[in-house]
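Please predict the structure of the following assembly.
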Amino acid sequence: MPFMAGVVAIAIVIGLPWLILHYMTKWKQAPKMTDEDERLLDDMHSLARRLEDRVATVERIIAADNPDLGRLSGSQDYRPSLDKGRDTYRLEERN
Amino acid sequence: MAVRTKFYLDKEDAKWKGVCAGIADFTGVETLWVRLGVAGLTVIAQQWWIIVAYLVIAWVAETKPTGLYQDREEAKFWQGVRSNPKRSTGEVRSKFRELDRRLADIELHYTSRNQRLADEIDSLR
């Protein structure tokens, strides 16, 4: 079947490079990270990790100093009362 | 040159030249599946040009420098950046938000405790 062979040859010769070039242009158009972005993100990531370590240390120290208050983050015993206090304070300030 | 978002040959995990291990390290896919995929495409799907592509990549790409990342967590983070920078940036941002929240909790804890202390001093008067 010379006709089928011709179709296949055309598909390979034209179709394949077309496909590759199409995806290459798409890939080129996609937003790329510059060196500056990469360095910035690297700094931010290491900074976040260091800060998290520090905050964890501080939280541990506070938890050791105040065992009665329980775990600091996520405990709800003081936050609502303080919010209420803040609201009354604002009301007084207005008067 | 972008050090962390570049393709490297991974010689530490290499079977032959480290291209499959490099692809696995770049994308975060298991090395085994990359190797099986390449082998399957070459042998079963009869894509023999993959061998040429493998050799070209092995010739062109640089070897991964040792000690590029401090630990596994950092390596994983940069794998995420390579596949989806937007999501990774969002993760860093949410981490900063979480830290802010935790610091606010600590601050709140101390201010509220001082308030309680002031109340007790008032009651002693």
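Confidence is low (pLDDT under 50) at residues 72-95 of chain A. Chain A touches chain B at residues 33-35, 37-38, 41-42, 44-45, 48-49, 51-52, 55, 58-59, 62, 66, 69, 72-73, 78-79, 81-82, 85 (CB under 8 Å).
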